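Residues determine shape. We examine one folded chain.
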Amino acid sequence: MSLELSLAQVRQRIEQAATAAGRDPRSVTLLAVSKTFPAPDVARAAALGQTDFGENYVQEAVDKIAALRADWPALQWHFIGPLQSNKTRDVAAHLDWVHSIDRLKLAQRLNDQRPADKPPLQVCIQVNIDQEATKSGVSADEAPALALAVAALPRLRLRGLMCIPAARTDAAAQREPFARLRHLRDAIADAHGLALDTLSMGMSADLEAAILEGATLVRVGSAIFGTRSTRSL
């Protein structure tokens, strides 16, 4: 399937799900997960109107941004993978968003390393919504305190929460963890007076369920770019 067709199909899925939820489809941002796919693939998607791209590997992201900056300066780059403390400087210098904040030390380093000539780094706190030992993320119980601390950092702007739930095949079951993340976001916002407008949740297999539960940003890779093989630029 061509990139043009696959991107159109994903956009149609988002529009249909948003309409079913009584929402404006424009309230859902499509984040094209371009990790392991080369810069020319990103450029092709950008030429089709795609503006937001997600990366998991710091050096790969930095290299793609450098390769594409001249021709596509308005692209928004999101870091969505686990982030090590020794990689924060490059992320703070080059990325626009980080979705995987799960500890205060990480947020403090990004805050301290964000260049003064750039706008605040947009961030989400990653919640381990199903308490899986194999996944990163703060627990739901610990999320409010972390959110309050991150919101106080001047070079970061806390936008909301992110989750990667355990795989579920039943449509109703898929909605349940997304609903929990939405309730948690709302509770944190209400308790602390925070303007949290982002729910980063839903991927290729479950984006409809996520949108029905209020996702404002869905992270879609394989349904756009196809199956990943090896990492390349």
Observations:
- The chain has a mean pLDDT of 96.
- The chain has nine helices and eight strands.
- The chain has one domain: 3-224.
